[in-house]
UniProtKB/TrEMBL annotation:
The keyword 4Fe-4S does not apply. This is Uncharacterized protein. It comes from Kingdonia uniflora. The keyword Glycoprotein applies. The lineage of its organism: Eukaryota, Viridiplantae, Streptophyta, Embryophyta, Tracheophyta. It comes from the Eukaryota.
Amino acid sequence: MGFSQALCLLLLVFSNTLLVWGCYTSIFSFGDSLADTGNLLNSEANTSPLILHPPYGETYFHRPTGRASDGRLIIDYIAQSVGLPLLSPYLGNHGSEDFRQGVNFAVVGATALDAAFLNERDIVPSTNNSLEIVTIFSKLHYFLWARSEEMIFEQRNVEEILTLVPKVIDTIYSAIKMLIDNGAVTLVVPGNLPIGCSAAYLSIYESQNKDDYDPLTGCLNWLNQFSKYHNKLFQQELDRLRKLYLHITIIYADFYNPAMQIYQSPAGLGFIKGALTACCGGGGPYNYNVSAKCGNQGASTCDDPSMFVSWDGTHLTEAAYRWIASSLLRGPFTTPRFSSSCLSAVACKI
């Protein structure tokens, strides 16, 4: 989920590109809680995950929609910025006509490594969804996001975590090759967020050693180094793919540095309540309590989520996602950059 789980894939499929980026008539999305817009809501009728209850969704939708935030996600901002509607979840009660401009297959808990691999190592994924689901698409243009952190949330030691990262990268590498071999011509693959700034990880790995923390941001250095390590390996593999497929556009989207801009200067960007404390939670130094998570009894919600970066300790607020989306759409954080001619008037308001 969001910051809390990785080994995941988030995939946006753009169709009908005109140039390198071009303008798009539809988006198809795969992934986990960074992109789920309602599939979990429609897939687990016999369970009651916290994100399906208030206060989730309170800011923009004024009701829970299955999104792991108080409002919109990055995928929502991207869709709106290219003039498309918010993506309907595939598992919703929709007819095929609802999918002409795209559909969202992302579901909370999706992983890059399959459930069997994780279970062998006592790492329990939230769902049994993995990269295998991408085989249903071919001849489309892909926006691919990948992360690598689930074993961290399971409190694995640093050495074990680092040894698994290449396996995660290999899985995603194979998925990208499969997509290209099935006709994909444009792929966008973001790297990891700075997970050392997550309220959940800051709580789980709280340290008495001041040297463990970045004096400017308060984030845990070793966890952010992990994110950098993942991103470095990931970009190396993307370079290898670009050499193999000269006719394919493979774009790396940098999530790490736009997020770090927030953590380095939260007040200057409007996050006046700070960057590390969760808006919704059950207390503690970072307002993250595993016994009273957001949505549980014992948890409370801040008055204005837009003043916070962290929503529930493992996911970000709509305001933080807006900043990251804006940075990707208009800043130097995608290579090649988004075509400004493709962005709608809505993008200017993000």
